[in-house]
Amino acid sequence: MLNPSTAKAVIDHALFLGADFAELFVEHHQSNSVQLISGEIDKINSGIDFGIGIRLFFGFKVLYGYTNSTDEEELKRVTSLLAAKDKRDQIVNAGSLNLNRFTNKHSCQLPLSQDANMAAKIAFLRQADEAARAENEKISQFIGNIGQREQQIEIFNSEGLHIGDTRHYTRISANAVAQNGSEQSTGYEAPGAFTGWEFNSKVDPKQLGQDVAKQAMVKLFADACPSGEMPVIIGNGFGGVIFHEACGHLLETTSVAKKASVFYDKMGETIANSVVNAVDDGTMVNEWGSINIDDEGMETQRTQLIKDGKLTSFMVDRMGGMKTGFAPTGSGRRQSYKFAPTSRMRNTFIEPGDSSLDDMLAGVEHGIYAKKMGGGSVQPGTGEFNFAVQEAYLVENGKITKPLKSATLISTGPKVLKEISMVGNDFALAAGMCGSVSGSVPTTVGQAALKVDNILVGGGN
């Protein structure tokens, strides 16, 4: 996408102006989405974006800018503007740019650039809509969306790196609304994968429609949730969002380097119950949060964050590694060329244990089964969080008895890690989007069901 000789000239210019490190991130991004509302196709959007991000290091200072031009003089002009305050002319040239190669772990048979597959996508959404409405007459609305995108990247830096990749993403979302008089409730699922439209073969549209309709109906006639501190069993899959938000961000050098994380000085120490083993893995084949290389050009890897309750690693980008002394983990990510990369999660999860759901329920006299988690908010510096439970049930004397609504879980990341006493054997992953200082990126959360012995529950009673 960018002539290597142009990239070399711009990098040499940055070094001449005194930069200790220079990088060019080139991106061509194509996207397409289709949305169905009220049984009709409401929107079809497509777009193409192209740009080049320029990043310079002056010691620990990071300067970043971007342009939509590939012209050498324009790229040098942006570089000069970035370096203006730190300019210290020196005669330094980067080494030769060498094209790096890697093994692509992620197959793609139906990329967006070859065919948008619009007729098949519309048919998929119509089937999901029909299935949701057929589930119950009280389903008043169904909203479905299919998004597909293709991101081509190319990275050059002053250490001689030249590497590129093409990334394929497909995600399907379904939202059902149930209504009984003035009462409303919703059900939501949004599976995704790091692949092309062939992902649809793994998602049954009828089953997807039925699942979100059943979720909505369960909550429509549910009882108010009790409040207070009690044991909670958090379901598998998207239940991992609590670890992601309340603990995962605290293990990124984005916060660790600034000592804005309660874990910044806890390496090697016990920070969780010994049953907790947590991983951030960018290598999982075709998983939504996977990548071949990160947005700094480093091949991705599997990073063991917590082992038997002890902190074993952070997620480290280049600058984070410089500031903390930890080796980069292939975790430098960004939304697009408009953002400088920082350490970010990929596929982040608590590894499965050997307990069954029945085992966990047996020890609960009065508590909550949070089968599906929803959104929430987190205070990054402390890990304080509150999360809505999308689908919840009351547990009495070791048995799931009745559905609940309006449940909220409230605690802190450090505290909840130590309250986890059992981890299940029903491991699952779920797709999501994560926002931070380098924009919004695809990430996967996951876990088996787990038992939290004591956590504050906010409810309607």
Written description of the protein model:
This protein has 9 helices and 24 strands. The protein is α+β, with helices and mostly antiparallel strands and 461 residues long. Strand 2 and strand 3 form a beta hairpin. The strands form 4 sheets. Strands 1, 2, 3, 4, 5, 6, 7 and 8 form an 8-stranded mixed beta sheet that branches. The radius of gyration is 24 Å and the shape is globular. The longest helix has 18 residues. The mean pLDDT is 95.
The counted number of beta strands is 24
Give the overall shape, derived from the CA principal axes: globular
Q: Tell me the major beta sheet.
A: 8 strands, mixed
Q: Helical segment tally?
A: 9
Descriptors:
461 residues, alpha+beta, eight-stranded mixed sheet, six-stranded mixed sheet
Task: Set down the secondary structure blueprint.
Layout: H1 4-16, E1 21-37, E2 40-58, E3 61-67, H2 72-83, E4 98-99, H3 118-135, E5 139-157, E6 161-180, E7 183-189, E8 192-193, H4 205-220, E9 223-224, E10 228-234, H5 241-246, H6 253-256, E11 278-281, E12 302-307, E13 310-311, H7 318-324, E14 332-333, E15 342-343, E16 347-350, H8 357-362, E17 366-379, E18 384-396, E19 399-405, E20 408-412, H9 413-419, E21 420-423, E22 428-436, E23 439-447, E24 450-458
Parallel strand pairs: 4-6, 9-19, 10-17, 16-23
Antiparallel strand pairs: 1-2, 1-5, 2-3, 5-6, 6-7, 6-8, 10-24, 11-12, 11-16, 12-13, 14-15, 17-18, 18-19, 18-20, 20-24, 21-24, 22-23
Offer a concise description of the structure:
The chain is α+β, with helices and mostly antiparallel strands. The protein is 19% helix and 42% strand. The protein is globular and about 75 Å long.
